[in-house]
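subagent[fold] <- orchestrator: predict structure for attached chain, return tokens only, no commentary.
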Amino acid sequence: MKALKIILFLIFVTESVHAQVIDSFSIGILHIRDTITLATKLEKTNPQQAFTYFQNALYASEKMNFSNGVDTSLRGLSNLYIKTRNGELYLQIFQQAAIVCSRSGQFRTALPIIYGALAAIYSTKGEYEQATSYYYNAINIGESLPLCIDLPSNYNNISTLFLTLQDSKKINLTKKILYYLDKGEKSAIQYRNYYILGNILVNKGNLYLIDSNIKQSLVYYNQALILAEKEKLPNVADAALNNLANAYLMANEPQEALACIIKDIGLNVQKDPVVQNGEISTLASIYYKLKNYKKAEYYFLQSLKTAQQLNISRDIIFSYQYLSDIYSETGNYKRAYEYGKKLITLKDSVEIKNSMRMISQLELKYRTAEKDAKLIQSQLMITKNQLTITKQENQIKGKNIWILGISAGAFILIIFFISLYKNNQNNRKINRVITEQNTQLKNALVALEQSQEENTKMMKIVAHDLRSPVGAMYSLATLMLEAQERSDEDKEMLDLIKTAGESSIELISQLLQVNTRMEELVKEPVDLLKLLHYCVDLLRFKADEKGQRIDLQAIPLIVSANREKLWRVVSNLIANAIKFSPNNSTISVQLIEKPENVVISVKDHGIGIPEKMRDKIFDMFTEAKRSGTSGEQSFGLGLAISKQIVEAHGGRIWFESKTGDGTTFYVELPV
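subagent[fold] -> orchestrator:
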């Protein structure tokens, strides 16, 4: 009986201790959950404090083997990293968490979160190989789990990484990107993660936009926008509208792009002030392109005010430039002059002086290098002549010694070898001198080319900085000509200034296009039909002044090219056709599609190109320049610049002409 009482007492004590342990564990779990809840509330208002709470909850969950607490804490830390981007701090935490969770099978569900976060950190650091490896690990483990709500996010993130590589590194990863986007779309639908689903749809649109499939990209952007509006996801709507605007601009539909940007600006999404001002500036630029000068002026003034408050000099200069252009085009020359003057004042005049000084120094170096090269070339010719004479003398000496050797014997033969040895030594010295002089000549030529390149660069800087003061001179002359009280003599002088200013602006614009290279081109999909229509419509008023008609025959064709550069080539060819054609004639512009390229032709019935000028027509600053049929001025730069631009695109330009019977210029571009 006594033994039974002892046993019952021990059972009672054991149960009491067990109950206390359970209560202690439950209290710990509740404390962890409260800490995580508090951290989640502080994510937006106090990220630093939220970070501390999530970290404490993580460490407590690891000690108590509370897997749900580990998962939730790590997910909270991952969200905080995306907002703060403090890579080094979060890298240490997730690396330590990876070690702990890899050892315990109980924490296996946390590994997709950890590896996904590590991949995002390495991607931000630009270490794409490490990032890709961690994304693969996150996806492989996630796919092996019966339930993994982080799979859609990791599918989307690895697709975003591959999109970045395809766009920046020009690596074709289209199949991989589509594979993970498709899996991500199915996974996001399965877990009802509509935020990730919206981002995946945007990424699909981005992929097709990179591949110039604008129609398909618009489909996915619109799907993402519909989903965002239905599920109330403002950040997804922001991304979709931004990309829709870009796609519509590439499709040359500025009205649709305008609607998207206006809608995007109206979204209640937290944005950086610099980004917001960029959107306002873009909106103003679109209104300017649409020739809605009133709204363009309003938004540029708004952008200018914000830029001045934030001290964004780039946006200030941009606003000054466009406001000056707007007032000039609307006839408000006084305001145009004011903003033009502000633009000139904002730029440091010392930069222009330094540019001029550098040009003078480079010119001096160029001339000196040119003289040195000529001197070395002259010395080289003298040395070569000396070598030739020496070789001839050696041949004569060899023959004489051979004859004397036959008659005189061994003594003369020894003298021959001594003489031959000395001659060989002399030849070696001469060859060494020639080699050294050749090296000097090469170095001089390299310096000459470098000097020429720097000279061209400085010329562009000066031409660019001269554009604004010359434009201001032209605007002032135009403004002063409108005054009725001026004498005829004053008007004549002002008209000369205006004409000189207009010619100078044209020359400066051409100088800025000199030396176009392939590596400098920024290409985009260009609709040649719309480009040709734009060029013809822009120059039709010049043709109308001479009673000429421009006939355009073209079909819709998309090529990868620099829109502005290609526009300059076509405009220059049409302007030349107008310049050198008689009144009341017809100019034909045609676009022909071939299997591997397209050909643009511009045909006139003008004065033609004389035989003696044809070899020099594409030379820079060529002498083969003539006045137009109505006395139009020519600088001899247009065709040379056009040739550089076409060849930089991998194409070619040529012409066919008969004197007195017109000229046809052809531009061939690869598809």
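orchestrator: received. Logging for downstream: The mean pLDDT is 76. DSSP finds 22 helices and seven strands in the chain.
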